[in-house]
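We close this part of the discussion by returning to an individual protein. Part of our work consisted of pairing the sequence of a single chain with a tokenised description of its backbone. No coordinates are needed to read the tokens, only the vocabulary itself. The amino acid sequence and the backbone structure tokens for this protein are reproduced below:
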Amino acid sequence: MYVLVFLAPMMHWQFQLASFSSVLNKYPDILTFFAPMVDVWAVMVLVAYGIFLLRAWAHGDTIHIRMPGIGIYGLFLGSALVSLFHVFPWEVVSSLKYIIRFPLFVYIGYVALGVNILTTKALLHRAMNVFLFSVTLGAFMGLASLFFHVWGLAGLMRAVPFGIFGWAPFGDQHIFLAELFVVTIPMAMYLGVVAERATVRHVYFGLACIHVLVCLLTFSRAGWLTVFVQTIVFLIIMRKKIPWKKVIHTYVWWVIAVLIPFGVYMFHFLGTKVVSMSDAARLTLTDISWYLFRHSPFIGQGVGTFVDRVSEIQFFVYEFGTPIDAHSILDKVAAEQGILGIVAFALFVYWLLWQLYTRAMNTAYSREAQYISMMSLFVVGGTLFFQLFSTQYYSAKVWVPIMFAFAQLILYKGDAVSYTTSNFFQKKRKSIETKI
């Protein structure tokens, strides 16, 4: 499981059967298979866990498989199946494969698998540390890209991942790093807060600062906007507990002074041709999504068909080249699954965020339970908000953080009972002492 978590940020490390062409030359049909290494590893872990369960069952042990939120997420899967009524007959098989490969797999291969393996708080914290370490490698790669001048345009530079001898596990675009930092910044802050030793606490806070810095240096508009929204939401939630006078006099002016150079640089960056072309492509994809949605508003065009529909629009191919997927999870679901899919997924997201928020604000729970729920609220909210501007919605880098959120909801569920019970006895003892 730790290997799976480590590989989750490295979505562009691909496993390709074409690399074994000398061995599989008798089976040319399967040589075209390729998938992210993390997905292949997840399948292997699923098989291993299945064998483990079968052995336990054979020995007479009781089998209990946790599948948190499956009822409400099942509505989303159901909307995907309903959308098949609108696909062409020759697309039914490919759409079914798409459902299994993406929306179903991310739940079974990451959420369900993770919560059934990470069954203690210690295991969960180690897994989060592994994820944080993996993303930190990407952060240092982004910093190194500035010194190596990997990306440059009109005298401007940005932090990007890059390949080493043809191996590029983090991809080659700035957005692939930025979408990781919106997860690891609150994660590093949480791990620092709950750390027992001051030295360790400073290390985590230092990592959080590095991830903020590299996120800014990617000059990803989605990254900047997500971090800004996360910060505003945090300030709103904690408004009654923040010593505003001290914060304003001590920190705000320093933050503004640091951000001004980044803001000026970003202003110049937004005027470049590469940004205007990116905006044009995204707006065109949104227009296409809206067009497809209007022609089948209730059940959509059919799951997994967006790229095929874009390929049929000659204007897009002529202007922007190879057809690509929707640059927003909202556009994707609206076009492919219609209102039914949007409502089902919105219910799932709302239900999960509400569970996290109520746990974080419930003083009956221990401080650690509240802190990790607060972290999970910003991790899940941040990664899903980012996917309003990205294409990685069915990937490990999105669903492994969601798995962390589900796992902590299960593992810290009993903290309220012990905390409330101890509170009850403390009040009783004080009452008795007063009477004596």
Q: What stands out?
A: The first strand starts at residue 14 and ends at 16. Strands lie at 14-16, 34-36, 152-153, 156-157. The mean pLDDT is 91.
